[in-house]
Design brief:
Distance between the termini: 68 Å
Organism: Nyctibius grandis (Great potoo)
Largest sheet: 2 strands, antiparallel
Shape: flat
Protein name: NADH dehydrogenase [ubiquinone] 1 alpha subcomplex assembly factor 4
Pfam families: UPF0240
Radius of gyration: 45 Å
Number of helices: 9
GO cellular component, one term: mitochondrion
Family: Belongs to the NDUFAF4 family.
Order of helices and strands: HHHHHEEHHHH
């Protein structure tokens, strides 16, 4: 209901208000800056003559100027071997278990893949006498210090199942 009422007031006497606005005198433009008048003066022949006239005093001063330039010695830019082929890293085939299709097939020496890391951590956890840090370092081409820190700081999760009688007690 309010929309109809406001529309009535908006359209009231619309044509006469529009004619009144159209019939108003247009505002005069702002005065031009004095530099715009220079363009008009450039067309006069006296100004053109002054522009193209040679000044002897300036010519003699210009002849006294002597510029001697030398190119700097050319330096060969060393790209640092950016575009040269880099040394190929030695890669080794991964030792994959049943998750072989999920992992990469080749890794650089000194690195292991995620699946291999999980496998070696699990093997070390299940059989620490067989899978020692030295054997893991030799098997996966790793440094002994890195293997020791890997075995110290990363522990795989264990799944524990409770017997049925304990579930009832809980």
């Amino acid at each position: 209901m309010g929309g109809r009422l406001t529309r009535v007031f908006r359209t009231f006497n619309l044509e006469s208000r529009a004619r009144r606005e159209i019939s108003k005198k247009k505002p005069s433009p702002a005065p031009r800056h004095p530099t715009s008048r220079l363009d008009e003066q450039a067309d006069h022949p006296a100004i053109q003559e002054e522009i193209y006239r040679k000044d002897d005093r300036l010519l003699t001063l210009l002849k006294d100027v002597y510029v001697e330039s030398r190119d700097p010695p050319v330096q060969v830019k060393d790209g640092g071997g950016e575009h040269l082929p880099c040394k190929q890293e030695e890669k080794r085939l991964t030792k994959l278990g049943h998750l072989g299709e999920l992992d990469v097939k080749k890794v650089p020496k000194g690195k292991i893949s995620i699946v291999e890391a999980l496998m070696l951590l699990n093997n070390h956890k299940l059989h620490p006498q067989i899978w020692t840090a030295e054997k893991i370092a030799v098997e996966y081409s790793l440094e002994l210090k890195e293997v020791n820190s890997l075995l110290e700081f990363f522990i795989p999760f264990t799944v524990k199942e409770f017997p049925k009688e304990t579930k009832k007690a809980i």
